[in-house]
Amino acid sequence: MRLAILGCGTVGSEVVRLLHEQSADLAARIGAPLEIAGIAVRRLGRDRGDLPVAPELFTTDAVGLVKSDDVDVVIEVVGGIEPARSWLVDALRAGKSVVTANKALLAEDGASLHDAAADGGADLYYEAAVAGAIPLLRPLRESLHGDRINRVTGIVNGTTNFILSAMDATGAGFAEALEEATELGYAEADPTADVEGFDAAAKAAILASLAFHTRVGAADVHREGITEVTAADVASAKAMGCTIKLLCIAARGTDAAGRESVSVRVHPAMIPLSHPLASVGDAYNAVFVEAEAAGPLMFYGRGAGGAATASAVLGDVVAVCRNRLAGVHAPSESAYADLAVRPMGEALTRYHVSLDVADRPGVLAAVAGVFARHDVSIATVRQAPAGTEPAGRGVDAVLVIVTHTAPDAALAATVEDLRGLDAVRSIASVLRVEGGE
Ligand code: NDP
Ligand code: HSE
Hints:
binds NADPH dihydro-nicotinamide-adenine-dinucleotide phosphate, Alpha-Beta Plaits, Rossmann fold, twelve-stranded mixed beta sheet, alpha/beta, 3 domains, 14 helices, Dihydrodipicolinate Reductase, domain 2
């Protein structure tokens, strides 16, 4: 089996190393040896350490390598939308198997890749695109195909999980925790894709597409990052027996007209310490799947890193090579359900709201009245004299309200109206609450 490797950075160099170190085992598992036909990179002169590969295999001509008749499998570990999309569409249309880790491309325009795979009768595998080393997409795409998945809740971005875990452990603010993540090499020089939730949103789209047999793209995902999460929010969560995580949530539901639909969102949320995802610390990833017959399933492991991600890439390489040798290919994209994606306003969630209020008669009633007007039911109310809350904001009283489940639009409108109440001096924290109702 002849492999074209596109990209030789963090992931690609580990793919090359593992192909070399495990060549005998891989050949035995596949039933044929694997050979590298070429490695496309941007800079031929870049120092690549002592990578165990002949220098003449490197090329800057990715197009030529992809088009070569001498290639069976194209492994894409470059990233980005173009030129990766053109390379992969060409390869798939020509009947070559494709293995990619490119979540951004799959979420932006997975349709083009799946259509090209169907046209060319080719395999498209992308286990490494979501949650790095964790075997997750294959279970969704194969093992759980006899079941009905109702909800997927995940921590799918290691950088933000590291930052939030550090804030929780030390009481640090976002900026300080980001600095630590950068120093330790978890956060990239430009951390926007991670901290603003773009990376997690791409992964949420891929997970939702597989779980619900429906095409979901990045644009369908409601996205909020963690840059607004404060040390006071973290302290508030702790006071409630919770922790804050950046969650991706894909859930089946019913829209206002009674039709089945899905909601897909990424945002920070409080989860109780008893929730299986609460103990996922550091830069680890975990995904909690709730299926009708199987019940709850938890997938946990390293979501990033060269070797960890290369493990998932090589697992796909073995699968597509076996398929080629057997003259078969994996079932094509399953998007038959074609469910509508609900807007965020219709997603059902719960809010935790912390208010600084005047401590005088009628204030609690006025606040409760705003919730009632929006048909939002209050689950718990806690009032503390000023100064006793973790943030000690020097106001008359702090009211902490947690709601029952309601449409997000009703919860957001409630918060907007609370801002207009005379007795509310400020809204100290608003966070969604997940897991537990
Ligand atoms: P890197 O930036 O480390 O490597 C990118 C590689 O692509 C480099 O070798 C670079 O060449 C090459 N390259 C860039 N542009 C071109 C081009 N136009 N033509 C040919 N080669 C090009 O990226 P990563 O290895 O970190 O990530 C690769 C993919 O894996 C991305 O899609 C990413 O989202 C995904 N992924 C990464 C994970 C991780 O932990 N890093 C985890 C899961 C998924 P050169 O070496 O010459 O600069
Ligand atoms: N930047 C990503 C993370 C890498 O922090 O999880 C893996 O996709």
